[in-house]
Amino acid sequence: MIVPVHARPACHFRATALRSLVIGLAVVFVSACPRTPEPAQFAGPTMGTTYHVTVTGADSLQERRAVQSAIDRVLVETERHLSTYNDTSEIALFNLDESGSWQNVSPTLFAVLQEAHDVSEITGGSFDVTVAPLLKLWGYGPGSVVASGRKTFAPPTSGQLEQARTSVGYAKLELRRAPRMSVRKSASGMRLTVDGIAPGYAVDRISSGLRVLGHTDFIVEIGGEVRAAGQRPEGGPWRVAIEAPLATGREPLVGLRLLDAAVSTSGDYRDARIDTDGRRYSHTIDPRTGRTTASALTAVTVIDADAIRADAYATALMVMGTEAGLAWTKALRIPALFVERTAQPGGWRLVESPAFEEWRE
What we know:
Elements: E1 2-5, E2 14-20, E3 25-30, E4 40-46, E5 49-55, H1 61-82, H2 90-96, E6 103-104, H3 107-122, H4 132-137, H5 158-165, E7 173-176, E8 182-185, H6 198-212, E9 218-222, E10 225-229, E11 238-243, E12 252-258, E13 261-267, E14 273-274, E15 280-281, E16 297-304, H7 307-320, H8 322-332, E17 336-341, E18 348-352
Antiparallel strand pairs: 1-11, 2-3, 4-5, 5-9, 6-8, 7-8, 9-10, 10-13, 11-12, 13-16, 14-15, 16-17, 17-18
Helix pairs in contact: 1-6, 3-7, 6-7, 7-8
């Protein structure tokens, strides 16, 4: 996952805290140098995880209240329209519809589904928001067969998977903009989940809100999805750390310098299913086959101009695997880092796309 690292100039600084960011730890340095202004910090719970926003230049109480208000508006909007864990959200209600007719939807839901559709097409279906029926079978998401990834379970049968796949496929979800933004299911039993793209959407929307307020230097993080703009308070690009893919414990693996860019990591190392024979099933499910992926690949990090696309690309590349994913990122010149397990405990094999190296710290 991605962890922002906030540093201060090297004059009488001291490490004061290891602050949990839910998916990682950030070492925060406090400087004794008075010339560097202290940025405004905003944090709280959202979407089953947490958010952290750092803004330079929001010095007055009025400015800080305006920033917090902008953040809250986006988080409320995201919860109201995109949460699959809220039975009254727009997407939850849409999931219940079995009429097969066009349903008018909000600009929020339409924008996310349109972006998801575009990513599905460009990745050959490796990313697919209609995958929810398969996730349920494998024990993930609302109504899953197990409540925790650490509980033993019975994997779905081939028959169950084939039945679920009749409801899965991004091409079976139709979108139109006129006469109104609307969506239609062409397969019964279809259920949507935008958990693999909604945090990135919220990060981008908060970033846009901060720009509207006149802020140019900030970093926004939700559940490890990060977007940075401008410079950190002491100058230079914002610094973030990609965590090592450890099931327990947290430690940095690769440092990045972000300048007007977003970064996202997808991985299978903290949530898996174990059957009665002790076999491990990956958290990553291939929408095209209905089955969990089986490879050495355990995490993928992607850098993009927008968090929503970095979020979706990282998920898609986990499905593609290292070889196919690397070829895809090379063709599109996308910065990506693939992390594979090795036979050595705690050892990792890092595979970078050519465009990734320029972002390394």
